[in-house]
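Priority: medium. Attachment 1 of 2:
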């Protein structure tokens, strides 16, 4: 029997050995060094994004990760669910890089996300090949089962992560024109039907055919364009300043929420570290 440790990511070896290697390293560190686990996962999705970009948007392969993910999503290469998973790993990886402590349960969540993303990624870069990721099996902690006290702290960490993910999901929902469960192809089909109906109305009224590109542009009007409407009476520069001010306020609020979550995470990590030191001294 081989002495190779069990891995959730063996299916990646054939389609992308570098991504598979980083995934195995992340598994190795998930309990013993959660920060390093997040470093590896962030590198992993950056390699994924670069390969995906090389297939559809080659001019972006040297862009930063956030730019690549946004472009891949707008291009239709990266579905929303996968984009959310990659952004979660990107954010938590960035936090770890900048010295914010990562609890083991958080690293395990991101490792599970990476497993789901890997199956989707392998199917897209190796089209036509059979990819069987299997179900995710959490790596066992090296020290055996957690104590009652450790389990209690871990439960609070899990509750915090649930709140973080819930808030991020609500934030994203508020910025979208369609629901999380709405099929992108269904959206495109609905827009085509609506545009066709507009054309029929125009013909009946003796007007020229509706310009689909123009309608799409109108549907995509941003805050700045809305401020230029006669009802507001602003010129272009004033509209831009007002729009940018509101966007900056939204960004500040989101950043404040993320910083509060990071602070609470750090406090829970510190509590767990103190508990482990007390256990080593035989105090609990």
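Attachment 2 of 2:
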């Amino acid at each position: 029997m081989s002495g190779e440790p069990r891995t959730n990511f063996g299916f990646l070896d054939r389609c992308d050995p570098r991504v598979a290697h980083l995934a195995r390293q992340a598994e190795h560190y998930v309990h013993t060094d959660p920060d390093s686990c997040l470093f590896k996962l962030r590198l992993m999705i950056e390699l994924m994004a670069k390969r995906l970009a090389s297939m559809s948007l080659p001019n972006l392969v040297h862009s930063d990760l956030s730019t690549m993910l946004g472009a891949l999503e707008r291009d239709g290469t990266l579905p929303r669910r996968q984009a959310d998973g990659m952004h979660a790993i990107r954010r938590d990886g960035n936090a770890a890089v900048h010295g914010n402590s990562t609890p083991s349960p958080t690293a395990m969540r991101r490792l599970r996300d990476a497993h789901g993303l890997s199956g989707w990624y392998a199917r897209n870069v190796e089209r036509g090949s059979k990819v069987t990721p299997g179900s995710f099996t959490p790596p066992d902690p090296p020290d055996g089962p957690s104590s009652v006290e450790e389990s209690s702290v871990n439960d609070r960490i899990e509750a915090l992560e649930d709140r973080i993910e819930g808030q991020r999901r609500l934030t994203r929902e508020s910025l979208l024109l369609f629901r999380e469960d709405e099929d992108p192809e269904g959206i495109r089909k609905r827009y085509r039907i609506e545009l066709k109906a507009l054309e029929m109305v125009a013909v009946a009224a003796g007007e020229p055919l509706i310009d689909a590109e123009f309608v799409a542009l109108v549907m995509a009007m941003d805050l700045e364009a809305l401020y230029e409407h006669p009802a507001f009476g602003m010129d272009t520069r004033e509209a831009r300043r007002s729009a940018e001010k509101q966007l900056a306020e939204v960004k500040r609020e989101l950043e404040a929420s993320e910083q509060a979550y990071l602070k609470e995470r750090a406090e829970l990590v510190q509590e767990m570290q103190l508990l482990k030191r007390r256990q080593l001294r035989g105090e609990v």
